[in-house]
Fold this protein.
Amino acid sequence: MSSNVGLSTPRGSGTSGYVQRNLSALKPRDTGFGAPYPPTDRDRALPRQRQPDKEILDHDRKREIEVKVFDLRDKLEDEEVEEDEIERQCDELREKLTKEAESGKGLGRGKNLKMHQVHELAEAKIQESEKLRKALGIKEGREGMAWEEKREQREGAQPKTDGSRS
């Protein structure tokens, strides 16, 4: 070991004893919430709700329907039902589930969602926010406006000074 670099004794470690710095470590961002210092008020914008991708949501709903149809098909094939009867029952189930999904009943959306279901989570969060907004009687598009109105009232009540003497 020379100049205090590496292991005190490399014997038995299976290495030469030389220790390098980890260059793959991520550095903090310069600005924003990942930075070592929180952003100032001018850097901070109103929080924005992430919008779910409608195509992905539709694809997941169709996939859930097809999984249930496939389960029925598999069960009927195990019972050795005729192919025409299997097709008829599968088509009926597919139509029924499609109508339920279109009517809004869905297949239990918003409950027991996993962390990887980001679009479903975003959709559930938007529905929850909308429900809360209606319950509290908040008008749409008025987030943060109460603070602006209070500031305007406060500024209107205070006498304005322009620095001139009378």
Notes: The longest helix spans residues 54-78. The mean pLDDT is 76.
